[in-house]
Design goal:
Helix 1 (12-23) packs across helix 6, helix 3 (69-83) packs parallel to helix 4 (102-115) and helix 7 (189-200) runs parallel beside helix 9. The chain has helices spanning 12-23, 48-52, 69-83, 102-115, 130-140, 159-170, 189-200, 214-220, 236-243, and strands at 3-7, 27-31, 57-60, 87-93, 120-126, 145-149, 153-154, 176-177, 187-188, 205-209. The strands form three sheets. Strands 2-1-3-4-5-8 form a six-stranded parallel beta sheet, sandwiched between helices. The protein has nine helices and ten strands. Helix content is 39%, strand content 18%. Residues 8-131 form the NAD(P)-binding domain.
Length: 248
């Protein structure tokens, strides 16, 4: 039986990837900072050799906004080499090479580390998950006037669909950089906000806020979008209908 290690396996994406792989008959190890028996902080690397011993494929979903993803990737690659891991699969973000945001730059650096690792590798870039867009809109809706980045659209994708694609890639052969995966619709943030407000039964005045900086210009130019790869099925409105409780 194939043994697959999923890093970040208790997170939003990693948990679904692990469930999907188990359903497909794989033996799955879940690695996270607190999940026993493979509780490993990848940024430190302690205990990582035991986690990857006997593993055929690693699906690398672990990430943090607090920094250190590049160091974590180096530790994971080194341990995978020592263990003879055959295939390393990495989830990245559409636009990491086009939008000069710090977090995106780090994701791109991780891609390059994996590409140069000497391991068999696969990298999938996707657009932002529905869950993240909801989080952004929920925070904005706490104010009487809802601020939104002027001129920016998004292309949210369903995380379960991404998990299914990653599981498919993990059980296949190393494929290098595979085609991007985007949600079914590219929508202005104002339209996403109106859809969200309708779903929660609230009203807010929307305020388009121009921002400064190269990253914002990259988002305005659509560097984070992949309309030619709108392969996701679940729309933002459908996601909200399933996720949010029905209004009384």
């Amino acid at each position: 039986m194939t043994t697959i290690l999923v890093t970040g396996g208790t997170g939003t994406l990693g948990r679904l990837v692990a469930e999907r792989l188990r359903g497909d008959g794989a033996e799955v190890r879940v690695l996270s900072r607190h999940a026993q028996p493979y509780a490993v902080d990848l940024r430190e690397g302690t205990g990582l050799d035991a986690a990857v011993e006997g593993v055929d494929t690693v699906v690398h979903c672990a990430t943090t906004l607090r920094g250190g993803d590049d160091r974590a990737a180096r530790h994971l690659v080194e341990a995978s080499r020592r263990a003879g891991v055959r295939h390393l699969v990495y989830i990245s973000i559409v636009g990491v090479d086009r939008v000069p945001l710090g977090y995106y730059r780090t994701k791109l650096a991780v891609e390059k580390t994996i590409e140069g690792s000497g391991l068999g590798w696969t990298v999938l870039r996707t657009t932002q998950f529905h869950d993240l867009v909801v989080e952004v809109l929920r925070n904005a809706a706490r104010l009487p006037v809802m601020p939104l980045p002027a001129g920016v659209s998004d292309q949210p994708v369903e995380v379960a669909e991404v998990a299914a694609r990653l599981a498919e890639l993990a059980t296949g052969e190393p494929s290098g950089r595979v085609p991007d995966m985007g949600g079914p619709e590219v929508l202005p943030f104002a339209e996403l906000a109106r859809t969200y407000l309708r779903a929660i039964g609230q009203h807010r005045r929307l305020l388009a806020v121009p921002l400064a900086g190269k990253a914002y210009r990259g988002f305005r130019a659509g560097g984070h979008l992949t309309p030619e790869r709108a392969v996701g099925k679940v729309t933002f409105e459908e996601f909200l209908a399933k996720r949010l409780p029905p209004r009384a």
